[in-house]
Design brief:
With 390 residues, the protein is α+β, with helices and mostly antiparallel strands. 40% of the residues lie in helices and 27% in strands.
Amino acid sequence: MTFKHRFFWANLFGRRYITATFMVAMACQMIFAGQTAARGASVYTIAKVKIDARAENAVLAKKRALKEGPLQALKLIFKRLAPFRAYDRLATLTLSEADSVVDGFAVRSERNSSTRYIALLDYNFSHKKLQALLVKKGVPFFDQRSQKQVLMPVFRGTDDQSARNKDRKQWWRAWRTIDFKHGLTDTRLYQAKQSDHELWQKISIGERQQYDTLRDRYAASKLILVDAQINSQKDRLTLRIYGEDHVGQIDYSQEIPIKEGGLAQNYEAVAQIAFGIIEGRWREPRISGDVVAVIASLDDQDEAASSKRLISETVFLRVAFRGLRDWQQIKQRLQRIPGVQKMQVNSLSPRGADVRLKYPGGINRLRAQLAAYRFALDQGGNDVVLRSLK
């Protein structure tokens, strides 16, 4: 029985189990946190997943939420690692697939009414199982974090100071819901001061030199400013992302319709869109390979006509290196490449190693993936030689 099932049934039987449940929950959270700390800020963890479920009673609402939560988390981590062109595959993800790749979860907070359960949960994924699932679905992906950059939510607002201050607070709170710790970009969230908003006002009307003033103020070589403005009809938000990240300069604007649910929820949705754009700028140029149509069954003849399977093929490589330490680092990096399986060293010498491994799609798909991990393949006589580019 998994932790989430024990947690659910312990709470089901009332107050006399509260102490035991609390201890179990805390122990599991400590284990979860310890694992995460040991690995660093893993991109295979999704934090702050908001679960909101309704049912006939609180017990059924909670049961439904904990059942559906893994799939919601899987879709979020899919968006983090996979390219935009693969997002149509989100609809194909299933509850059973989510359960098969989730490696544990922790409860940040929870509350309920008689018919509703609301919680913030952190989900940890098995990177090997998740990578295997993405490969199975024919989806290329990228899981290497960028270096540090700073993001600051800013707000121009209206002449009404009271309304402007309220919107600024809501805009800031919306960004607090984002999981920056495990993001694909190492993004640090800074809260803007009154003077920062004033500088942004000048930047937004063309005084671009004020951006350097703001960047120097926080010693942030990579600083991203994000603003959201409501139009006069109050039916659209204009998102603007301005500054510089590890891809380069950015000045991006997009109009987003306001949906039902209140301004705070709309701000949260816009913040998610903005962070998705920022992470996509880092991820998209580094993803190699096409999104491959993969059939689930040979019985589906229509789909089989236009699809192809990803078959794990054996790849033989001659790995060139400068010494033992260099070889150990190359070997570790090579084993971390998504999709690499059953890697074996057939022979080892002071300057090279003969390696055999399995990779879906064989040498051609591996060649496309290697560039993102700073490797290159050359033809050396009868051998395919792998060299590190760093």
